[in-house]
Design a protein that fits this description.
single chain, 437 residues, Hydantoin permease, 18 helices
Length: 437
């Protein structure tokens, strides 16, 4: 009798599909999700790829970008699949990334269960800080693009002055609170972005020097900066999860030919192509954004800079969505007693986030160093270490497979994330200190 109940319980658990019980107020279609994925994954980071390749060499750059991109994509699959499995066990429609980490630590190896108490605020903190860091980088990029145009045609001003000019547009775009309502802006941004890439490639392919003038393999001491920049560029774990959460048909996201795989294939092709050919053209003169390398005095080049400034402005709202969602929906809304002015309070929180990103951008206006620091510090944890630990704990009560394959693989990813994160963060901070002595 008891065995029958166990079997029935097991069948009942297997029959439960979290996706079918998920309720989303304003869901996005597959096409809208694909548009958001591209916009989230292809930001200012792609324009930093020639600079990243200058720290690796063109052969090293191609190999390592493929490796890091593949690992990053695999870890995104680990997160979403593990979250789905935990939801199925708990018979609930959805778990956030922090909640999933908490549940996983509770069910994982005894030596890790202590972390269950701090997992939610810890993951929330890193997610919020990472996407906050991206927004800081975006403020720098937009201001730098505007500065080049204004310097050429009007008056030379400090970049920090231009950061002040973008505050109002940032307030306006960041006041859009639903991902669904950002879709038209993301679609427009994607069109401008691909036109911009076409023009940038036109300049890159003009009078390419002999490839022999470039280095195939750079010295190892430069690789940490490459690691941080590429990881920053390729990973958008918080937005990727938020996009899946808001889908009408989430099953279409993670399949073999799902939205995430198709999107990442396009993203990797763009990153490798722009990195390789951008480095071939500009070599060690490659700047934090390749748009800063193209001619200052040509109208077409200036138009492209405007295009990328606009797409980055829209990306700011998409990336900042995660920070705002965590701060407001996970914490502050619970402490707000006056429910009639919730929208106003949320807009005030978003305004504070904009001001803080502005202040941080003013403090460190060096785009390439900021990119590397944020990527190495945050994404080694969020995009590599946590996903591996999530699967490791999730599989603890079932199986790690033949020869404990999944356990060994997850531990290797954790080690890769720890080593890369520590070295990348140390080198980035050292470079920042050296630059601002």
């Amino acid at each position: 009798m008891g065995a029958t109940k166990e079997v029935n319980k097991k069948v009942e658990e297997d029959d439960y599909d979290p996706h079918e019980h998920r309720v989303v107020k304003i869901p996005t279609t597959n096409t809208e999700t694909f548009i958001h994925f591209l916009k989230a994954s292809v930001g200012t980071g792609v324009l930093a790829m020639p600079s990243a390749f200058s720290n690796a060499g063109y052969v090293n750059g191609l190999i390592l970008t493929t490796v890091i991109g593949s690992i990053a994509l695999y870890c995104l699959h680990l997160v979403i699949n593990s979250m789905y499995e935990l939801c199925k066990r708990k018979r609930i429609p959805y778990l956030t990334y922090p909640e999933a980490m908490t549940v996983a630590f509770e069910e994982g190896p005894p030596c890790l269960r202590f972390f269950a108490k701090i997992a939610t605020p810890f993951v929330d903190g890193f997610l919020a800080f990472y996407h906050f860091g991206i927004c800081c980088v975006y403020v720098v990029f937009i201001a730098e693009s505007i500065k080049q145009i204004v310097d050429e045609y009007l008056i030379v001003l400090d970049i920090r002055i231009h950061m002040c000019f973008v505050l109002v547009p940032l307030f306006l775009i960041f006041s859009i609170r639903q991902l669904k309502h950002l879709v038209p802006f993301s679609s427009f941004a994607n069109v401008l972005m691909f036109i911009g890439f076409g023009v940038v490639l036109y300049y890159i392919f003009s009078n390419l020097p002999p490839i022999s003038e470039r280095v195939a393999f750079e010295e190892i001491s430069k690789l940490p900066l490459f690691f941080g920049t590429v990881l920053f560029s390729l990973e958008a774990v918080g937005v990727v999860i938020a996009i899946e959460q808001n889908m009408k048909t989430p099953k279409a996201y993670t399949g073999k030919f799902g939205i995430m795989n198709r999107g990442m294939f396009i993203v990797l092709a763009l990153y490798m192509g722009l990195g390789f050919f951008g480095y071939w053209q500009y070599g060690n003169d490659s700047k934090g954004s390749v748009t800063l390398n193209i001619p200052q005095d040509e109208i077409l080049a200036q138009v492209v800079k405007i295009f990328f400034a606009v797409t980055t402005l829209i990306s700011y709202a998409l990336q900042g969505y995660v920070t705002a969602d965590i701060i407001w929906n996970h914490y502050l809304i619970k402490k707000t007693s006056e429910k009639s002015n919730l929208v106003l309070y949320e807009l005030l929180v978003r305004a504070c986030i904009v001001i803080l990103t502005f202040l941080c951008a003013v403090a460190i206006p060096d785009l390439s160093l900021f990119l590397s620091l944020v990527g190495a510090f945050c994404l080694s944890i969020l995009g590599l270490i946590f996903p591996a630990l999530l699967e490791l704990c999730c599989r603890y009560s079932t199986t790690y497979g033949k020869w404990k394959f999944h356990l060994v693989k997850d531990l290797l990813i954790v080690c890769f994330g720890i080593i890369g994160g520590i070295i990348g963060t140390y080198v980035s901070i050292s470079e920042i200190v050296e630059a601002y002595k």
